[in-house]
Specification:
Radius of gyration: 46 Å
Distance between the termini: 111 Å
Strand content: under 5%
Helix content: over 70%
Oligomer: single chain
Shape: elongated
Number of helices: 19
Length: 609
């Protein structure tokens, strides 16, 4: 015959076994539940983000809103990084550097002001204060958890003592109810002790149900209430298994497991079934959670590989020899594009992310350090070139009044050669300096031409050379190559026999002669008969075209060099125009020759096959 409970005890038991509508057990993982963030911080300005954080930092529930605080911080520094990048300032957080831009002959590099300093300092002040308060809050929580652990250990000790009394249910169950109430009222314990303390408590609870003589009706009712509670937990877990947000689902599942342990056993025939159902839903959530992090791990590996490749590219650029401003500017733009690409790649794993960022930043720093060093040396060099060209101007001005025509002419030619060999000078002074030097040269050679003797009829010589150029152009080539070589040598002899021309016209008429010979007798120079022997075997069509291509490239370089000496002199516009036209024609011919060379190469390949 089952033991009878008095009505008062039965009522207490029924109250103790009611199924709660919303389990309230709270653990260390639950205590700091965050307020759901529905604000799109990415659309807010820096000032609005700073104001939002200031408002959060002053709110009463600020310690429970860490996710919201982190979201504001992340949005603030991303927007600050972009704003600084757009303004050409130093980058924030992960952005290594915004690329520098410098003129080819820039003398000074201006450093921009930082318009974001005030809002950044204000934000940092609030965030640092919040961090300190949060650290103190967490320290206090840990102390409370340690205290809660001691309280729960006392509850377990009392429960164990109750089991050892062996009294009847009328005496023990009210005390058991009080122990349960005390247990549920105690807050969270340290995470490291959570599993052990709960397992111990559940063990003694099950022993209580197994050992205390409760009448069958009351025990079945208690089991039924526990079953209903755990069925609700299963339903919640099964819905979580369908949740696409696997991270949130996993966190909620952990809460369910913690609450599951707060309730007593069910009837033996349902224990395995209810646990299997709960375990199945748990397994689904865990698999999705594991797959999510495996995918994240794979993506992080891909990000690391991509960032490693960018590091190698920057390191290669930083290590290669760069000798000119144009090369430095081109490499700077390439670095800018790499940095832009870097910012588009996601994070690597936590252990690798800082290392790869440090490597990338070090490579960027190395490049820009070398660039600054180059421009420092470059500035010193162009200042040295400036002093050299000023000295040449002074020498030309001292020489321009000389009447020792031959000696002075040679000296002027030597000065012009030195001028060409000297590198760039500051751009602001380049034109004026060239004008000064050219004026001294023009003054001397104008007077030199006036003093020419009849036997040195410079303008007559010029006309004779012009006629010879036209004669070369009109010459019709023979089918006999030796005759063509002979004619070319005769033209050369006639040219050498003609005397000097006016200095201003010297380069132009010489160039016209070279062009006429190159155009009419292309490829013959290398095939002249050798003295005392037969002519070498004719070269292939491709070799002839390559030689003509190389010769034309040299001619273009000569034309462009000559423009420098004619461009600033008086009445030279027409001549400069002619030279520019020749350059354009030569470049068109280069393109045509390139196609001919490619076609000749293909023919040779076919013959070899």
């Amino acid at each position: 015959m089952s033991e009878q409970l008095n009505p008062e005890v039965l009522e207490q038991v029924l109250e103790a076994t009611d199924v709660p509508q919303a389990p309230s057990a709270e653990t260390p993982a639950q205590q700091e539940e965050q307020t759901e963030n529905t604000v799109n911080y990415a659309e807010m300005s820096l000032a609005e983000l700073a104001a939002a954080f200031e408002e959060l930092a002053k709110s009463e529930d600020r310690m429970r809103r860490t996710k919201e605080a982190d979201a504001i911080k992340s949005a603030f520094y991303k927007k600050l990084s972009k704003a600084k990048a757009d303004a050409g300032l130093a980058p924030v957080e992960e952005t290594p550097y915004e690329a520098e831009e410098e003129e080819a002959v820039q003398e000074e590099v201006a450093q921009p002001q930082n318009p974001f300093e005030q809002v950044e300092m204000s934000f940092k002040a609030f965030y640092n204060a919040y961090k300190k308060e949060r650290a103190e809050y967490n320290k206090q929580l840990e102390m409370e958890r340690e205290s809660n652990l001691k309280l729960k250990e006392e509850v377990i000790a009392d429960l164990k003592a109750l089991l050892e009394k062996g009294e009847d249910v009328n005496a023990t169950f009210p005390e058991f109810r009080k122990i349960q109430d005390r247990w549920r009222a105690i807050g969270p314990v340290p995470a490291t002790a959570f599993r052990n303390i709960n397992d111990t408590y559940q063990l003694y609870v099950e022993q209580f149900y197994d050992m205390v003589s409760i009448n069958r009706e009351l025990r079945d009712l208690d089991f039924k209430k526990n079953l209903e509670a755990k069925q609700k937990f299963c339903e919640i877990a099964e819905k979580l298994a369908e949740n696409d947000n696997v991270v949130d689902a996993f966190k909620e599942l952990q809460k369910l497991h913690e609450q599951w342990k707060e309730f007593g056993p069910v009837a033996k025939q349902y224990r395995e079934e209810i646990w299997d159902r709960f375990k199945a839903a748990t397994a689904t959530v865990n698999k999705k959670y594991q797959a999510f992090f495996e995918g994240m791990k794979e993506k992080q590996s891909e990000n690391l590989a991509a960032k490693t490749a960018l590091c190698e590219r920057v390191e290669a650029i930083a290590a290669k020899g760069i000798a000119s401003s144009n090369e430095w500017n081109a490499c700077s733009k390439e670095i800018e594009e790499i940095q832009k690409e870097w910012r588009g790649i996601g994070f690597a794993s936590k252990k690798d992310n800082q290392k790869i960022y440090d490597r990338f930043r070090a490579a960027c720093d190395a490049f820009y350090a070398r660039k600054r060093e180059f421009y420092t040396d470059y500035k010193d060099n162009i200042n040295s070139n400036l002093e050299k060209k000023i000295s040449i101007c002074e020498a030309a001005e001292a020489l321009k009044s000389s009447t020792e025509w031959k000696k002075a002419s040679d000296q002027f030619i030597a000065l012009q050669k030195q001028w060409k060999e000297i590198g760039a000078v500051p751009r602001k002074k380049s034109a004026a300096l060239w004008k000064r030097f050219r004026a001294a040269c023009d003054e001397f050679f104008a007077e030199h031409d006036k003093q020419a003797k009849p036997e040195n009829d410079f303008y007559g010589n010029l006309r004779a050379k012009q006629r010879l150029v036209e004669e070369i152009k009109a010459f019709e080539l023979s089918s006999d190559e030796s005759e063509n070589v002979k004619a070319m040598n005769e033209f050369a002899a006639k040219w050498q026999a003609i005397g000097f021309v006016p200095f201003k016209e010297k380069d132009a008429i010489n160039q016209a002669y070279k062009e006429a010979v190159a155009s009419k007798f292309a490829g013959l120079n290398a095939r002249r008969p050798r003295r005392g022997g037969a002519a070498p075997a004719p070269r292939s069509l491709k070799d002839q075209l390559v030689q003509k291509y190389n010769k034309l490239e040299q001619d273009i370089i000569t034309y462009e060099n000559n423009i420098g000496f004619f461009a600033k002199s008086k009445n030279s516009d027409a001549l400069v125009g002619q030279i520019k036209e020749r350059i354009a024609q030569a470049k068109e011919e280069l393109a045509s020759l390139k196609e001919q060379i490619r076609a000749a190469q293909q023919e040779e390949n076919k013959e070899q096959e």
